[in-house]
Amino acid sequence: MAMKFIRLELARTAEYPQGSAAHGYEFVVPLDAEDHIDVEAWRADKKASTVKRFWGDEDAEEGYLIHTRHRTWAFSYAAGEEDDEPFFRFESHAFREGEYVSLTGHDGAIHPFKVVSVR
Question: What share of the chain is helix, strand, coil (3-state, %, to 5)?
Fold first, then answer.
């Protein structure tokens, strides 16, 4: 298990046809040898899996990676579920540069993100 720092940037959308480096997430998560989330390592130290959301001119938000009672993974910034941003099939993604993931944003829409760095 290795803790990895991952940066996601908004991929191409109708609003951002070239994607956007100003919209995304930086997070720390334990990955296994196949670059998938290491669930046991996450369970052993949940507070180590932090996230920072940056979204254009909005203030950055900081929180944690959580596993919700709905059995999904999400970024959470405060107590309760109102601000949670769930991932689509997070547990099946390999976090490697160039890969894509989908995340439901604060606006309730699913957005595509590109993994731009893993270190």
Answer: 10, 50, 40
**Do you know the residue count of the chain?**
119
Cβ burial of 32 (10 Å; 0-12, 13-18, 19+) is middle
pLDDT, one tens digit per residue, over 64-109 is 999 877 778 999 998 887 788 988 877 788 999 999 999 998 888 9
Number of C-beta neighbours around residue 83 at 10 A: 15
Residue type, 83: D
CB 3 within 8 A of CB 48: yes
For residue 41, give the H/E element and its range: helix 39-44
pTM of the predicted structure, to 2 decimals = 0.92
23 half-sphere exposure, CB direction, 13 A CA radius: 16
